[in-house]
Amino acid sequence: MGIACVAFIGPQNNPMYLRSIDPASDDLYMKLHYVIHCSLDAVEEKVMLKRGPGDSQDAYLGLLYPTEDYKVYGYLTNTHIKIILLLDDEGPVKDEAVMRVFRRLHGLYVDTASNPFHKFGLPLSSPRFDGAVDGIVAIYRGAGASQGGFMT
Amino acid sequence: MAGLPPVPSPGVVGKKPARRCAEVCLELLCAESVRLFHDKQSGPAAAAALEAVGYRVGQQLAERYTRDKPRLGDTLEIIKFVCKDFWQALFKKQVDNLKTNHRGVYVLQDNGFRWLQRLSPPGPGADPGREEAARQLALSYLHLPAGIVRGALCHLGVTCTVEADPKQMPSCTFTIRIMA
Prior knowledge:
The structure holds 2 protein chains of 2 kinds. Chain A is an alpha+beta fold. Chain A contains 3 helices and 5 strands.
């Protein structure tokens, strides 16, 4: 229950970070890669749709599309970084809680990018980053989407 | 004064005041970086190196300053963001004048560019030689901010070149040319 997978995709649709929260086999990783890849089209569609006047030009894109096992949520930053979350919640999911997770992940990415040794475009591979992602995911699971109670 | 820590208000108990840094540190760092690069390398190479440093910083600042902003749509919105919020965060003021020829060239004019404030302009009636020397010196200080602007724009999706021109110190213009 909760977040199954976190992915960061760069501006050229290059995968920068893909992490399955539960330990995953190679097959499962292939499946996750595939789902995330398909979700990139959905991100572009949503952005096109939202171009209409009066639509909120927000970073949070909401539910992109449901697959049989997961619900795929998307977030697009101004610097064209896409953050994709795969949730395997069965019950109703509160948008608020997912939005908070995205904001925290975005903040984490901004802090990581501010590192002088960070190289843009290359995959993110740092144990500290992994640990921080774990922390954010744990809060989502702990607080519970139904309660939706933690500070951004 | 920018350097003194703010006194915590009596109602807030046990909360550490936010750490601040004196602005003169940034000015000294900029001046020293210009000197360092120009000592190690000759003119154009030093300029390119400073611009590259600025480019990287610009990318990182673009990530940080667009964090909670609504989505920026087309090129004009991105340029306006650079003129207002980005300039405000970086140089404590907004760009004074924005001109465009609607064909991919934008000219940003700042009438009191903060990073040139410490350079004394040549006095009125100075001979052209001195004016040219002063202009060249000011130009060497502008490679870094030009790089920052270019890095921010490219990271936001606008591929371009940025050229700085110190017209009347401390006022200067930045010309952005969008590459198709």
